[in-house]
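$ fold --in a.seq
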Amino acid sequence: MASSSAPVPSVPSDPSGGPARVVVLVSGSGTNLQALLDAIAEQGSEAYGVEIVAVGADRDGITGLQRAESARIPTFVRRVKDYDSRADWDAALTDATAAYEPDLVVSAGFMKILGKEFLARFGGRTVNTHPALLPSFPGAHGVRDALAYGAKVTGCTVHFVDDGVDTGPIIAQRVVEVRDEDDESALHERIKDVERSLLVEVVGRLARHGYRIEGRKVRIS
C-alpha cells in the first residue's frame, strides 16, 4: 500500500532500461493525459523518461480515449456496470492494467475509487491529482469547499493513492491564490492549469530519478 512505512523501490527499477512504462487512467476529456502526451512529444520519451504504454477508462466514447487513439496508444475500457460486483470490476481493471507491465500508473481525472486488489498490485506506484492543498479539503468538492471555508489560498496536490480518500503520501503541491471575485468554476480553471504543469513535472521526475516512500515522506532520488 502507498501508505506503508516500508520503502518502495525506485521507479524505473532499472534506469538503464529506457523510459518508465506508464498506464494512464481517464474518465473524461483527458486534459491531464494530453499534457503528458505533449511533454513526451516536445522532449522525447528518452529525455522526459516516460513512455505511455496504454490508456484505460471506465466508460466508452470519451475524449480521453480519442486522444490516446490519435497518439496511437493502446486503450482498454472496463465499465463498472459490466461486472457483478465492484470487486469484480476492480479485479478486471487490475488485470487489464497489469497486462501492460507499468512502472507507474497515473490517475488522470479517473472518477472511480480504486479497490483493494488494484492497490495491492499498484499501491506505491499510482499517482493522482487533487484540486486542493491536502490534507485540507479532500473529496469530490475540494474547490467548492475551499471557497465556502473562506480560504485565501488553495492549490493542487499530486500524491500517491492509498486506500483512503485523498490520504496518500504527498509528492508535490502548488499554491493558487483565491481571488475575491472567484466562483467555483473560475477558481477551478486556474487550479487545473497549475495542476497539469505540476503533474507533468512530477511524473517526469519520478520516472527519471526514481523514488522511495518512507512513511508519509516521498523521497525522489
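$ fold --in b.seq
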Amino acid sequence: MSAPAESLPDTAVPAWLRERGVPGIVDLHVHFMPDRVQQKVWGFFDRVEEHGEPAWPIRYRGTDEERVAQLRAIGVDRFTTLSYAHRPGMAQWLNDYAAEFAAAHPDAIPSATFYPEPGAGAIAERALARGAKVFKIHVQVGDFSPLDPLLAEAWERVAAAGTPVVIHCGNGPHGGRYTGLEPVRALVERYPSLVLVIAHAGLPDYLGFAELSARHPNVYLDTTMVGTSYMERIAPLPPGYAEVLADLGPKVVLGTDFPSIPYPYAHQLEVLDGWGLGDGWLVDVLWSTPRRLLGIDGSGPGASAATSAPVAPA
C-alpha cells in the first residue's frame, strides 16, 4: 500500500468534504501547548536528521491564533489540544493551560493529561470536573509504564467517567522502555471499561493493535500519520491493512498530529480516501465516531461500538 501524492491543497478540503457527504471534521489528535513546551517539541523534530531519520519540517509553525485559523479554514469543526506530561509537577499546569484555551476557543475540545506521581487521581478528577472530554498519555516521551501503580486511581476515575484517552504507546516513530502492545493489552484487561484511542494506530505494530481493538469494545485506533508519505518511508503499512480497518467497523477516528506534521493537513485525508473504503467510512472516521466518543452526539461519552465491531478470529 503506497501513499498518494500530496496533491489536495488545504484550501480544497471544504469542497472535498461536501463531495463525499462528510458533515465536517473532528480531529482527536491535535496539539496546542504552552509556547515554551511547543518550542521544545518543534526543536526535537528539527533535529531528527541527527539521528539518521528523514527530515521532519514542521508544516504549521505559527502562533496559537494562526493555527486555530488554519484549522477552521480547512474545515475542522472540533479539535483537541493534547498536551502530555513527561515529569512530575507538569500535568496540572498543562491542564490549566488547556482549560483556558478551550474556554477561549469554543471549537477546542477540553483536553487534559496526567502522569504517574502522587495525586495523579486527583489531577484527573479535577480535569474531569472542569469539563475535560479527552486525555492524552505519551508512554514513550514520559518514559513510564501504563501499569505504574501511581496511575491506578487516575485510570479508575477516567474509566468510570467514560472519557477517552489518546495514548501514544506504540514503538514508532520512536520506541521506549515501556512502549509496545503487551503493556496496553494488560492495561485494557485490568480496566475493561477504559476507553483508549491508540495514537498512530500503534505503528509499526499495525496488525497487533488492530486485533486488540477488535477484541476489546473500548479500544479505538486513530489515523495519525498512518499511511502518509512520510510514515510509509519508516513504518509502511502491511498488505491488506485497509481491509483490516474496514472489518473493525466504527472503531477508527481521525488524528493528524497538527501542527507538527511534515506535509499538508489535507494529505492525511487523501490517504484515508485512497484506501477505497467508501464515503460512509469517511463519515464515520472524520465525524460520527469521534463525536460519539466525545459525547457530543447525544449518546454520551465512551459509548461502546461493541455491537458493530466484529471480533477477530483467534
